[in-house]
Amino acid sequence: MSPSEAAAPTPSQAGTRFLAEIHEQPEALERLLERDEDFARVAAAIQERKATTIRMVGHGSSDNATSYGVYAFGLLPRWTALRDSISLVVYYRAELDMSGCTVLALSQSGRTRDVVEYVRRVRERGAFTVAITNDPESELAHEANDVLPLCAGPELAVAATKTYLSTLAALGLLAAHCAGEGDRFVNELRASADLLRTLIPTLEARIGGVAVPFAFAGRMFVVGRGAEYATVREIALKLLETCRVAAEPMTATAFAHGPVAALDSLFPVWAIASDDETLPAVLEAVARARHV
Asked: What is the pTM of this model?
């Protein structure tokens, strides 16, 4: 049975399944690593075709993952990568020159209609198309030139968790192979899976004390920069679809250009940061929020 054919959860089951699938993330990452040879093969095909402009498409969590892909391909093989416009190709019917381009079509189910149509059209325009999906037998997988399965197992909760993380891992692993650093990335991803086994139960035990003060928040800004902007967008989506919090994602720098004026004592700001080159910008945004 494909993931898309599994029965949808009832409202009473959704929270339990949501948490259960968060706990399944380490195993999902390890299953993805079992397909490492597929990623190396696709990376070699991209290089052979000289299709080194990477165009990524998806909706929802898949679209959020493309924000990470921009940095993965930009920082590892140092290729231009972008979140492409589905509307431009599918609805406006723009006949773009796709020679020299690789399209990565991201979809958990592989059944998103306009993503499938986008792949069909850009393939006709010369793109090398790769489906990254949790269902390797889906329509999207059959429409693309090649497919990289996420191997995350059925995802029954409404909100994506393990398939989102596996999509990030897939983009990073493909980018690493394109840069000749596949073995190093595999080792680091395996270490990340081991770390998650310890981290998830620890966070679960502590998160209640953090979450309770925000139980009545109706709005929130989620801010970050760089590769973590994908996390910013995904957290905002999760708050909206699971908690009904009107969370708005934005870069830490954009936050200071107007949105900071909307803050008051009941308007939380969630800052996402890594200890990398973008950290000063995030810390500056946090300082601005604290002094409102």
From this structure: 0.92
